[in-house]
Design goal:
By secondary structure, this protein is an all-beta fold. The chain contains no helices and 28 strands. The chain has a four-stranded antiparallel β-sheet, with no helix packed on it. A four-stranded antiparallel β-sheet has the order 2-3-4-5, with no helix packed on it.
C-alpha cells in the first residue's frame, strides 16, 4: 500500500476524533462521523476534497450507506436517535429521525426488507439504560421492535447468506444472531474465545465472519459449525474492520500504535502493516478505486492509501 493523498477535514470543536465512515459508490462520496462537531463530513472521492457537512447530528457515531436503496443512516449517540437520509444526485435529504436505545452506535441494514438494526451501547450507570437492539422500518421511520442485548454492543452486520443480523457483544465475549424474520428474539449466541469483540466483517464467500477483538487477535467464526478460532495476532487493540470484497482483502484499524493490519483472505494470510498515526482507529474502503481511507484525528485529515495488486 502507498500513500496517495491527505484530504484536510474540519478541525474538532474540542479534543475529539472521527468515528465510523462509509462510501457511496453511486455519487462518489465518502461520509465520516465527526462527533465533536455533531456532523457528518462529506468527501468528494474523485476530486479528493472536503465538500461540506451534514450538521445537527448530536454526538454522531455510526455512519452506514446502503447504495441499492439510496439510504444513508447515522446513529446519533448524543440524543439516542438514528437519522435516515435519502441520497440524491445533488446531495442528501433527511427523511426521518427515529428514537433508539441509549447511546446508539453500530448499525446493519437488510435491504430486501428495508429493516435497519441499531445497536445501543447503553449506560452501565443507569438501571433503565441496558444495551439494546432497535429495529426500524427505513421506508417509514417506524419502530419495529427492540430487544435487550446480553452485554455492551459493538459493531453489527447483516449477512444475506443466512438471512440474519449479527452483533458483537463485548462481554460476555460473543456474537449474537437475530433472524431477519424473527426480530423478537436472539436466535443464537456464539461464544468468542478472546476478550472484547469489536470490529465485525463477513467473508465474501459467505461461510465465515471475522471478529477483531480488544485482546489483539482476529477470530474467524464458522457459522455452520458454530466454531470460532483465532487466525491471526493483531498489532494492538482494534476498532474498525473493513473488507474489500472484490479483492478479498481485510483491513483492521489499530489506534495504538497507529497502523492498519492487512490480510489476504483467499487463502488467508497476513499481508502487511501500514503505519498511519496515533489514535487513527477508524477507516473505510473505496472498492471502486482500491483505496483505503484512514481518518487521522491529530491532523484532521483523511489519509488515502492505494492498495493495488502486486
Amino acid at each position: 500500500m502507498r500513500e496517495l493523498a491527505r484530504i484536510p477535514l474540519p478541525p474538532h470543536a474540542a479534543d475529539g476524533e472521527f468515528d465510523h465512515a462509509a462510501v457511496d459508490p453511486v455519487n462518489d462520496r465518502l461520509y465520516v462521523a465527526h462527533p465533536s462537531v455533531d456532523a457528518v463530513e462529506i468527501v468528494d472521492l474523485h476530486a479528493r476534497r472536503h465538500l461540506g457537512s451534514l450538521p445537527g447530528l448530536r454526538g454522531v457515531a455510526g455512519v452506514w450507506v446502503d447504495a441499492p436503496s439510496r439510504h444513508l443512516f447515522t446513529s446519533n449517540r448524543g440524543e439516542d436517535t438514528v437519522s435516515i437520509f435519502r441520497l440524491e444526485e445533488g446531495g442528501s435529504r433527511e427523511l426521518f429521525r427515529s428514537p433508539t436505545g441509549v447511546r446508539p452506535n453500530g448499525m446493519a441494514f437488510d435491504t430486501a426488507r428495508s429493516t435497519l438494526l441499531v445497536a445501543g451501547v447503553g449506560d452501565a450507570t443507569r438501571a433503565d439504560a441496558p444495551p439494546t437492539l432497535s429495529f426500524i422500518d427505513a421506508r417509514s421511520g417506524r419502530p419495529l421492535g427492540r430487544l435487550t442485548a446480553p452485554g455492551r454492543t459493538r459493531w453489527a452486520i447483516f449477512h444475506p447468506p443466512t438471512d440474519a443480523f449479527y452483533v458483537n457483544i463485548a462481554a460476555p465475549a460473543s456474537v449474537i444472531a437475530i433472524r431477519a424474520g424473527e426480530l423478537d428474539r436472539i436466535s443464537r449466541t456464539y461464544p468468542i474465545p478472546a476478550m472484547g469483540p469489536h470490529g465485525l466483517e463477513q467473508d465474501p464467500r459467505g461461510d465465515l465472519l471475522y471478529c477483531a477483538c480488544d485482546a489483539g487477535v482476529l477470530v474467524a467464526l464458522d457459522l455452520d459449525r458454530g466454531s470460532p478460532r483465532v487466525v491471526a495476532r493483531l498489532s494492538g487493540p482494534p476498532d474498525v474492520l473493513w473488507l474489500n470484497r472484490a479483492r478479498s482483502r481485510l483491513y483492521a484499524a489499530i489506534g495504538e500504535p497507529g497502523l492498519v493490519d492487512v490480510f489476504d483472505l483467499d487463502p488467508f494470510r497476513p499481508s502487511e502493516k501500514v503505519v498511519t498515526a496515533a489514535d487513527a482507529h477508524t477507516l473505510t474502503v473505496d472498492e471502486r478505486r482500491d483505496e483505503v481511507h484512514v481518518f487521522l484525528p491529530g491532523s484532521h485529515e483523511d489519509l488515502v492509501l492505494e492498495d493495488r495488486p502486486r
